[in-house]
Amino acid sequence: MGELTLGVAVGPLNDSEFENCKKLTKITSAATAVPTCPSADVFYNVNKDIPVYVPKNSIAAYQAAIGWELFTNIQKIAKRGDIDGNDTVDIGDINIIINTMLGKTGEQFDGGDLNGDGKIDIADINMVINIMLGK
Ligand SMILES: [Ca+2]
Ligand SMILES: [Ca+2]
User: Are 62 and 38 in contact (CB under 8 A)?
Assistant: First the structure.
């Protein structure tokens, strides 16, 4: 619903693949090789200000690719559990969850609710710990 997720291996996109998908609010592409677009029409009528999440090392490639270049908000895919976005999952991420639980941060961190139950709590901390332990 409003989100488009492309897998790691995506072939070339059709000319009108996402044309008029006006309700898209987010695009995530796990493909390190940019899915090629025959023209910018692939995303015709798609809001170009929505966040587009792509693999960190491919950001520049997406920003230069036909079609994708139109998007103004291309970002790296957040690593699961990496709430502060420093590329490692560690105690710093847990601290952010704790601070959020204690109401110390005004900001809600998207990645903080790891189990997606709408609450930031001890269950999310457990998940970060499991990620740290490689479970
Ligand atoms: Ca981190
Ligand atoms: Ca949660």
Answer: no
* Relative orientation angle of helices 122-132 and 91-101, to the nearest 10 degrees: 180
Closest listed residue to residue 52, CA positions, set 6, 1, 85, 113: 6
Dist CA 97 CA 104 (whole Å)? 10
Report yes or no: 31 and 6 within 8 Å, Cβ to Cβ: yes
Q: What integer pLDDT is reported at residue 75 of this predicted model? A: 92
Query: 114 CA to middle of ligand 1, Å?
Result: 13
Q: How far is the CA of 73 from the centre of ligand 1 (A)?
A: 21
Compute, in angstroms, the gap from residue 94 CA to the centroid of ligand 2. Answer: 13
pTM for this model (two decimals)? 0.65
